[in-house]
Amino acid sequence: MKLHRQMNHRLGLALALLSNLLLWGCGNGDPPDIDASPLAPDFTYGQQGKATFPIGTLEGRIGKSVLQPDGKLLVAGWRQTPGSGPGRAPSELFVIRVNVDGSPDSQFGTGGELRLTVKGSDTVADMAVQADGRILLAVDASEPCVVTGLFLCTSANGAMASRVSVMLRLSPQGMRDASFGSKGIVEAPASSLSLALGLQTDGRIVLLRSTGRARLGLFGWALARYHPDGAPDPAFNQGEEVPSNCQADEASLLLQPDGGMVVGAVQGVSYGDPTVNPGLCMERLHADGSRDLGFANANLWNAFNTNVSLHALSPLPSKALLAIGRSCDLTNCGFWVSQFDREGRQDPSFGQGGTLQTLLGPTFNLAGSLLTRGGELILLGTHRPNSATQQAQTYQPVWIRLDSTGQAAPGFGVNGVLVQAPETLQAQQLLQDSQGRWLVVSRARMADGGLAVVVNRLRGERQ
Questions:
Q1: Which of the listed residues 2, 204, 221, 283 has the most CB atoms within 10 Å of its CB?
Q2: Residues 114, 105: contact at Cβ < 8 Å?
Q3: 287-300 b/e with 16+ CB inside 10 Å = b?
């Protein structure tokens, strides 16, 4: 269903009040009387609610964070190693495990951190923890190389650099698990954009990878399933990948209790005329890999009249789901949330006709989301208030709290939006532990110029 960008007066009020919130967040005025208690630091965690882990490099990224059933936090990412150039620079993977109190887990890797390489220029896209505590990583693995032509990257020996998608498994103690695949690794064809992992209730592993080439206007994804030991599962499409019917490849994966799999994907392209962006495409596969042809009445696309990216698919009761992402017109960006019923149809009781869209500013970026135990949706984004200056980059946290119908949650900020003061932390992910506390995983620049992973634990729903 196509949705108009013209929002009702409630959303217009939210945008009007946002400019005032930005001033309050910068210290230019006094905020109204707001209930910010969920965002209060949990001072029992780390140092005054914050734990910092230097990663010892000037360049790197956080790829994925996961809470283990025992409450320990795993943070995976990559860090650049010596060497650079116009191509794929050398890099290695890191995984950090953090105890429930915010201290590094000395029983994992070396002093709580593991570093490893696959091909020498590696980035981690996703992570999952199996029932026995073993850790799966989805990795884009390439040889370091220098660009020598269109789609050509040459390694040090003068040959075309190899690049593959990899599933890598670690033991609960942070050692490579040689019992998985071949010496701890299962290879798949290279992903053009994204990789995602899913674990089914019986332990089987689902791998989603992008297959298109955006520069050529080609988009697509493919889905494969493996046994817990990494062997291809012949009960899923005879052991072969299932290609998408959607011309979209910035994809997210949602596994359902009955064994079904929903993939949502967008093109990730900003159109000069945002109204022609095709939006979100969703497909559902049965447990055996066959297509659910009745899903969404075979109408796979949902257009939003803006340029959209996809952040996550989140499950709701009775196989319903939320799709969450970032939305931009030609001048401003914000968020969009759509609710779908179990048959893949937009739920008109949510937001406006099934979707809520709000534009929040030219530099808004969506960092994370979670569903509270009470059924509310929490979104965390950032503004970059000094993005056009020569000052050190800061980021302004933007919190949004919505009730189960897509309306602003009462008592939180102004119209459900709360903008905090600028800080040097760049929020990357938002998680909720078993006690309802919220963890914000951020990337930070240290005083010496190096990068660090910073974890803040907030009170959340634990009042």
A1: 221
A2: no
A3: bebeebeebbeeeb
